[in-house]
Amino acid sequence: MSQSPKFPSLYDISLEVLRVDHRDSRQYGGVYLDKHSDVYRFTVYWTLILSTPCFILAGIYASFNMAFPPSQRRDSIPSYKGFPSDYPVSPTLVPLNPPTLSSTRPNPRRSRFTFAVLVLLTYAVLSVGSAVVGSAVLAWVLVGLFEAGKYSLSTWIPFIWALIQTLVGLTGIWPAVIDII
């Protein structure tokens, strides 16, 4: 076992991709991870670096929508001359009364800004939590696969898999923000 490399220790990726026929799995000039703790450390760092900004941006978007909600339009359907705006399209449909603004009770102890900050903090905490848990699982799988195949684990592998984990996480973060808001 060698000593632990410093983060990020990325090197020229062409060493691993180009002209690899009949060569050793450890290329000269490459940096490899031998310890399980190093694989976890690199995976956590890369996942935090790549996914936290995405979560924070989504949290900022959600908190701005909480602090400054869009104005409610009274007439969402334009009224045509000759037809009243509450005229039903079908005779079986009964027009519904829109909810009045006075039906909600004001909360004197908490403001919109407080809820916006809570939303942002929730996104930040979930970002760090998902990075730590996801990286633990990902590092465990990477170490198992590379040890089973007796391969050398390059420092590029945690970066690539953290990028994949972030992109998969993005597929779930944006629609949820839109649905909630």
UniProtKB/TrEMBL annotation:
Membrane topology: Multi-pass membrane protein
One Gene Ontology cellular component annotation held by this UniProt entry: membrane
InterPro entries tied to this protein: TMEM170A/B/YPR153W-like
Keywords: Membrane, Transmembrane, Transmembrane helix
Superkingdom in the source lineage: Eukaryota
Transmembrane segments: 44-64, 115-143, 155-178
Record flagged with keyword Membrane: yes
Localization, UniProt: Membrane
PANTHER family, A to Z: SD17342P
Entry similarity comment: Belongs to the TMEM170 family.
The protein's name in its UniProt record: Integral membrane protein
Species of the source: Neolentinus lepideus HHB14362 ss-1
